[in-house]
Write a structure and sequence with these properties.
This protein is of the alpha+beta class. The protein has six helices and 16 strands.
Length: about 260
Amino acid sequence: MDYEKLMGVMRRLSLEAGARIMEIYAREDLEVETKGDDSPVTAADKAADRVISDGLRAAFPGLTLVTEEQAATHSAEAKTFLIVDPLDGTKEFIHRRGDFTVNIALVEEGVPTRGVVYAPARSRMFFTQANGKAVEETGVLDPDSTGALRLLSVSEADNEALMVVASKSHRDAATDAYIGKYAVADMTSAGSSLKFCLVATGEADLYPRLGRTMEWDTAAGHAVLRGAGGEVVRFDDHSPLTYGKPGFENPFFIAHAPSVALKAG
């Protein structure tokens, strides 16, 4: 695998998709439809999916491509595949809260090894470099030229005063009960895969998710967090969260800095 080429293409496509998303975000009518699983979809989801899918297929024709918007055509048979959520946080997009992201990742042998998370409304870009290390790009985000980079590293957590991040749109009593097992200094909410990135930057120590997610929701954020030294484990037995599962559905999980003393569910 040519990781230098891969990350250049992933980064560029995420910015191009983000530009299309923001064009639609500026419209008065976002034209929300409902998919078969009752989740919302917009013209922005579809436009971003086209940009990314066309670009990845042209650059890497031999790699299996899995995207949320084309999920019905996919099977989980490939050991190495690209996986895309062109607009993660559609509810955040619809309600114009800004915490939506473009997510592109590479999975190898069940592990998300490379990924890009781009939040176009926040102008925040996180990705893994060719060597797998995670960075945040700062300054003007130019599709043709990478700007200044900040190497990311998870926190050295204080287990007597943890920083916790939780979902804006999917917070529930079970999540609050689990968080209540920890000594929490402060808690913040964020949408989409930005929660993984907040753990990757050290802005949070712990992100538990006790709700339904799909692999395309998590793979890119997982790759970024992994590249910053973090971990994502299953909620039930704290074994590593893996990818390429039948149906691409995730179990409940916990994303965390390794220094966090995890509690049983």
